[in-house]
Design a protein that fits this description.
The protein is an alpha/beta fold and 458 residues long. It is built from 15 helices and 15 strands. Bound molecules: D-gluconic acid.
């Protein structure tokens, strides 16, 4: 009998973006620079010194982009709110014109029967706080973030009921602060040692905890509160008992999982990781873990790839497997095709993190591909369809085994500013012709629309 890959009727289909990657309008209506505005103008930080100054000009073209979403058939849209539009100096005065843009956007979504899911922080922190105290190097950032959350949720909580605090803590801490080489993400600060790097992610975890409390205090109506994380997915080289156990043993060590998702979901840093970190471990003040370990209504997983693990006769009982030279990948050096990483990412939450209670969303999954517009003005991205089809079949497996996966947001609705890669890498199911700002739905857009229409992987 062939598998139909039919999803439950309640499954939520969506698409995701982020403010600095699509909005543009960097100086419109009172917005002040973020660390990415400053970082991306520095020589050698982004491809071709690309910046998000214009991006997809979504700030002005949002109505046509919402129309694209409606025609796609999604009922859920994940976007991020720019801290430096709402509180341009990072703390203090609220810029009501900045809030008004998000009111316009959300009202347009609701008019099209699309539910907004708002990420409160997707890396574009105010440059003013970098100047004031070095951003995430300071504990003050956690409270300033919570105050910005209060300002935002008290103004938009009448329209938005699905909130996510932070997007991918490691990407604005461990990738943004480095000891030995220039960090690849903003603010790109050199710090004195590894403990200083771990202290930045500890401060981000505090921001998450205080942010959860601020949302719940400020919301004018019931809402859901989530964290979005890109923990490192350890995948058994094949599904034998010993390799599955090895993948679970490797999990806390991989990509610092034990130092990010463990405190958030379990209220403690993984003892195994702390032992490995030794003096590099962050300084944890009394009460910090209680602040960090807030109840969550959901967890967002951003998963693009995985790392194969096998069992080993060593102290850790597991071994990382290097990626072979010719392993299939898409148009990013780290984007090895590992479809089962979605299944194992979902399963790790229930079994390795022991949180089977936690509703899950795939809040990002997608790939960069070498998209070309053909002579007929089309983008036939069958490589992206291949990638997405395999990954969605892996999500389906998790639903068929009754793991609490509630929905899937493709990354991304639009080609956009891909951070240090600039506009050189295209992740969208819609092609952006940047000079004209024309939107061209790719074959993957039409394929995804058919999946949504049939509620299954086609
Ligand atoms: C991330 C970010 C996105 C990226 C996407 C492709 O997960 O890194 O949330 O902003 O653009 O993942 O790298």
């Amino acid at each position: 009998m062939s598998i139909s890959y039919q999803f439950p009727a309640s499954f939520q289909w969506g698409a995701a973006t982020a403010a600095y990657q699509i909005e543009g309008a960097a100086q419109a209506d009172g917005r002040k620079p973020s660390v990415w505005d400053v970082f991306s103008t520095k020589w050698g930080r982004t491809r071709n010194r690309d910046t998000g100054a214009i991006a997809c000009n979504h700030y002005h073209l949002y109505k046509q982009d919402v129309k694209l979403m409606a025609e796609l058939g999604i009922k859920h849209y994940r976007f991020s709110i720019s801290w430096c539009r709402v509180v341009p100096e990072g703390r203090g005065a609220v810029n009501e014109k900045g809030v008004d843009f998000y009111r316009r956007l959300v009202d347009c979504l609701l008019e099209h029967d699309i539910t907004p899911h708002a990420t409160l922080f997707h890396w574009d922190s105010p440059q003013a706080l970098e100047t004031r105290y070095g951003s995430w190097q300071s504990r003050e950032m956690a409270q300033d973030f919570a105050d910005y959350v209060t300002a935002t949720v008290s103004r938009l909580g009448d329209r938005i009921q699905h909130w996510m605090t932070l997007n991918e803590i490691t990407c604005f801490t461990h990738m943004s602060y480095d000891v030995w080489k220039p960090a690849q993400h903003a603010p790109g600060t050199r710090v004195k040692n590894r403990q200083a790097v771990w202290q930045t992610s500890h401060h981000a975890l505090l921001a998450h905890g205080l942010g959860c409390q601020a949302i719940r205090a400020a919301t004018p109506r019931p809402c859901s509160v989530a964290l979005v994380d890109n923990f490192g997915v350890t995948v058994p080289i094949y599904e034998s008992i010993e390799h599955i156990e090895a993948a679970k043993k490797a999990f806390p060590y991989h990509c610092g999982n034990g130092g990010i998702i463990y405190p958030a979901l379990k209220g403690e840093y993984s003892p195994l990781l702390l032992e490995q970190l030794g003096a590099d471990a962050p300084e944890i003040q009394t009460g910090d873990l209680q602040i960090i370990h807030q109840p969550l209504d959901a967890l967002g997983l951003n998963i693009y790839t995985g790392t194969y693990i096998r069992s080993a006769d060593n102290a850790q009982g597991c071994e990382w497997i290097d990626v072979p030279k010719g392993y299939p990948r898409l148009h990013m050096p780290w984007l090895q095709i590992v479809p089962e990483s979605l299944y194992w990412g979902i399963r790790h939450v229930s079994e390795t993190l022991q949180r089977p209670d936690l509703p899950l969303f795939i809040t990002e999954n997608g790939c960069a591909a070498q998209d070309q517009v053909n002579h007929r003005g089309e983008v036939m991205d069958t490589d992206r369809i291949l990638y997405l089809r395999q990954y969605l079949q892996s999500v389906h497996r998790a639903t068929s085994e009754n793991y609490p996966i509630r929905g899937y947001f493709v990354w991304s609705l639009l080609d956009n500013f891909e951070w240090s890669w600039g506009y050189d890498r295209r992740f969208g199911i819609t092609y952006i012709d940047y000079p004209s700002q024309a939107r061209i739905p790719k074959s993957s857009y039409h394929w995804y629309a058919e999946c949504i229409r049939q509620n299954r992987v086609v």
